[in-house]
């Protein structure tokens, strides 16, 4: 399974489909073939692995190890459960169950046809490898990463509004790499008016990355006709509303499964206050600025016991700066998301 996870990371982190890896094993435990999913409309990992067999007959009696439960749904491609059955695979082991109503059920289908199918193999590792996609599939909204860069005293800009650049080139390069791994980047109208950001993902040499996230702007103020966002490689999506749930629902419906919220403080605080943040990525520069330009504003925390607690996943040095990646800490009042009524909103789009 560890090898299947490694293979899955070859696939794109963005898009409506998850990263999935598969390994086919002979009865003696040797590897027959490997595969991974390359994005919506391409063969799924199991089918990709089958296509790499030296001979199709080698699949008969083989064991398939796949990170996500084989799908049981016909969309752009056929169901992986049927492909495994047709090939004669004798056993299937997977990490995490498919959360989609339409695409799930592959394991039960295989068992009903006499194939051993067992899940939960390295489940926590698999969950982490596709956490954004799983979160989106289970909640019916995009996975939200809140990102900001600030001084050690929590300022995102100087008193006169200047903010370029608080962090150094290594931190900024990391931001671009992370932008290139999501479906959308979201900012408020205040950020557009103050900074005129491009919101592109760029390579270290300054060229545009192969994948560009969709630029999204939320707010009531009109955007200048000369804004750099109108020249973004992807069409700009402006939302003249403060209803974040409505924006997330519309983005999810259009295929967005992961998004980067880059500010400014008003929008960032609104997402945090609404409990819509799944991950926080903070870049801290070794500088003190002072003044009123805080990275976050009011979060609706009247007293310290009400503070929004986080679990730190990693702390890394990037040049002179520090990058902290964290996630909301689980709470005793947390409840599982309600089941999705519309299966098309959560299944893997073939």
UniProtKB/TrEMBL annotation:
Its cofactor is Zn(2+). It catalyses: 5-amino-6-(5-phospho-D-ribitylamino)uracil + NADP(+) = 5-amino-6-(5-phospho-D-ribosylamino)uracil + NADPH + H(+); 2,5-diamino-6-hydroxy-4-(5-phosphoribosylamino)-pyrimidine + H2O + H(+) = 5-amino-6-(5-phospho-D-ribosylamino)uracil + NH4(+). GO terms for molecular function: 5-amino-6-(5-phosphoribosylamino)uracil reductase activity; diaminohydroxyphosphoribosylaminopyrimidine deaminase activity; zinc ion binding. Residues 329-350 are annotated as: Disordered. Keywords: Hydrolase, Metal-binding, Multifunctional enzyme, NADP, Oxidoreductase, Riboflavin biosynthesis, Zinc. NCBIfam families: eubact_ribD (TIGR00326). PANTHER family: 2,5-DIAMINO-6-RIBOSYLAMINO-4(3H)-PYRIMIDINONE 5'-PHOSPHATE REDUCTASE (PTHR38011:SF7), DIHYDROFOLATE REDUCTASE FAMILY PROTEIN (AFU_ORTHOLOGUE AFUA_8G06820) (PTHR38011). This is Riboflavin biosynthesis protein RibD. It comes from Subtercola boreus. The lineage of its organism: Bacteria, Bacillati, Actinomycetota, Actinomycetes, Micrococcales.
């Amino acid at each position: 399974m560890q090898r299947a996870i490694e293979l899955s990371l070859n696939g794109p982190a963005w898009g409506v489909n998850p990263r999935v890896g598969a390994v086919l094993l002979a009865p003696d435990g040797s590897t027959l073939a490997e595969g991974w999913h390359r994005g919506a409309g391409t063969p799924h990992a199991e089918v990709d692995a089958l296509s790499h067999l030296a001979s199709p007959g080698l699949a008969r009696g083989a064991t398939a190890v796949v990170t996500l439960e084989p799908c049981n749904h016909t969309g752009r491609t056929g169901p992986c459960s049927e492909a495994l059955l047709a090939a004669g695979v004798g056993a299937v082991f997977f990490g995490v169950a498919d959360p989609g109503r339409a695409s799930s059920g592959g394991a039960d289908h295989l068992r009903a046809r006499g194939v051993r199918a067992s899940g939960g193999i390295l489940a926590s590792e698999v969950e982490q490898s596709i956490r954004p996609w799983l979160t989106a599939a289970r909640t019916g909204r995009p996975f939200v990463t809140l990102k900001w860069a600030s001084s050690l005293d929590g300022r995102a800009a100087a008193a006169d509004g200047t903010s370029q650049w608080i962090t150094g080139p290594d931190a900024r390069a990391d931001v671009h790499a992370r932008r290139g791994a999501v479906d959308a980047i979201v900012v408020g109208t205040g950020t557009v008016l103050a900074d005129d950001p491009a919101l592109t993902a760029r390579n270290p040499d300054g060229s545009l990355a192969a994948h560009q996230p969709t630029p999204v702007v939320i707010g009531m103020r009109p955007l200048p006709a000369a804004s750099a966002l109108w020249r973004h490689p992807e069409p700009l999506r402006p939302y003249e509303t403060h209803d974040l749930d409505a924006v997330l629902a519309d983005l999810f419906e259009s295929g967005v499964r992961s998004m980067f919220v880059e500010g400014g403080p008003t929008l960032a605080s609104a997402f945090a206050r609404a409990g819509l943040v799944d991950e926080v990525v903070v870049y801290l520069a070794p500088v003190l600025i002072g003044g009123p330009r805080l990275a976050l504003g009011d979060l609706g925390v009247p007293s310290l016991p009400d503070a929004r607690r986080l679990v730190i996943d990693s702390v890394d040095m990037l040049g002179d700066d520090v990058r902290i990646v964290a996630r909301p800490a689980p709470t005793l009042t947390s409840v599982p998301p309600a089941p999705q009524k519309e299966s098309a909103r959560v299944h893997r789009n073939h």
